[in-house]
Amino acid sequence: MFERLPTAPTSQELIDRAFRRAKKNAGKKKNRDEPMLQIAGNILSDNLANLVGKYPSFESIPPFYHDLVDAEVGVDDMRIHLSRVGWASKQIKIVAREYLTKMRKSQDKAVLRRAAFGRMASITRTIGPDLIFLNDSRKKLRKMPTVDPDLPTIIVAGYPNVGKSSFLIRVTGARPEIAEYPFTTQGIGVGHFNHRNQRYQVIDTPGLLDRPLSRRNDIELKAVAALHHLPGVVLYILDPSDYCGFPLDEQLALLEDIRSWLDLPILAVANKKDLAGYPGADLSMATQTGEGVAEVLARLIEILEHTERDDPGA
Ligand SMILES: Nc1nc2c(ncn2[C@@H]2O[C@H](COP(=O)(O)OP(=O)(O)OP(=O)(O)O)[C@@H](O)[C@H]2O)c(=O)[nH]1
Ligand SMILES: [Mg+2]
Predict the structure, then answer these.
(1) CA 151: distance to chain centroid?
(2) Ligand 2 midpoint to CA 207 (Å)
């Protein structure tokens, strides 16, 4: 989604670049002041306008990404910084035009050109902090997950070590692509499979749905809330064998916690059937041997098909 965002130059880099090119390309003749101003003004103004233009409009991006951007860098802040850069681009154009007009009627062209350069440089410097913000944001946004918010999605949740990754690998037949996601250091895993000509997405969310809501800060809450925008079902994996290191009642408490606030269908499945059983789960499986996995997948697909029918396009 944001892989193509350009690096934002610093104001000094921009100023140096514009004035250097102006000097180089204004020709060798005597009357260089006007072309120099024209060139420097265009470079500064166009560079800034192009930078702003490379950002998507935050109203039109999928809500899933909108919420992630908001969690990661703040959509309002982003808008403010972008609009200041846009403002600078226009302002520089105005200054260049104003001084070019003055120069046509004046003998002191060099003086006016220097004055114009000074004003354009100072406008560019005022947006220094905005450019730094954009560059820092770009680093974070470029790592946004490659999740397709339109694909029916199985969101795999549960305590560490219960078998989330094993499930994903088993049903998608591949090691997941690891994407960074706000506030999970481990990154989320993304994999795909096809069933009756429909492509499905499976995301493994270590660190994302493994704690009660009450233990999250506001920013983390936004990142978690973004999941609501996926046409998804949550597969909550339980490990009744305690092999994962967490007692079953803790795992069940987290399941209840997630149910109480996550507005997506949830299927609770007991894994590691080969080691222990839990009759309270919706279904049982063993991702290690593959036993029961096909049934779990079939149920998840059924839930996704129903959800789509009930709530088209949501
Ligand atoms: N006996 C048995 N072990 C299993 C089964 N499924 C997974 N395991 C084992 O449980 C451990 C954890 O599995 P993972 O798939 O890595 O679990 P995870 O939930 O992705 O763990 P985190 O990424 O740390 O949150 C591994 O050693 C697996 O081999 C199963 O059905 N039976
Ligand atoms: Mg894992």
Answers:
(1) 17
(2) 10
From 166, 181, 235, the mutation candidate for ligand 1 (largest count of ligand atoms within 8 A of CB) is: 166
Q: Which of 161, 239, 243, 274 to mutate to test the pocket of ligand 1 (most atoms within 8 A of CB)?
A: 161
Whether the CB of 161 sits within 6 Å of ligand 1:
yes
In order of start, what are the domains of the chain with their CATH numbers?
Answer: 11-141 (1.20.120.1190), 153-310 (3.40.50.300)
- Give the pTM: 0.79
Mark out the alpha helices in 128-234 (DSSP H runs).
Answer: 128-141, 164-172, 218-225
Pairwise CA distance, residues 195 & 289, whole Å: 21
Share of the chain above pLDDT 90, in %: 70
Ligand nearest to the CA of 178: 2
Q: Do the beta carbons of residue 159 and residue 250 sit within 8 Å? A: yes
For residues 52 and 58, give the distance between their C-alpha atoms in angstroms, rounded to a whole number. Answer: 12
227 Cα: distance to centroid of ligand 1 (angstroms): 24
CA nearest neighbour of 155 among 118, 181, 127: 181
pLDDT tens-digit map of 255-280 = 999 999 899 999 999 999 999 999 99
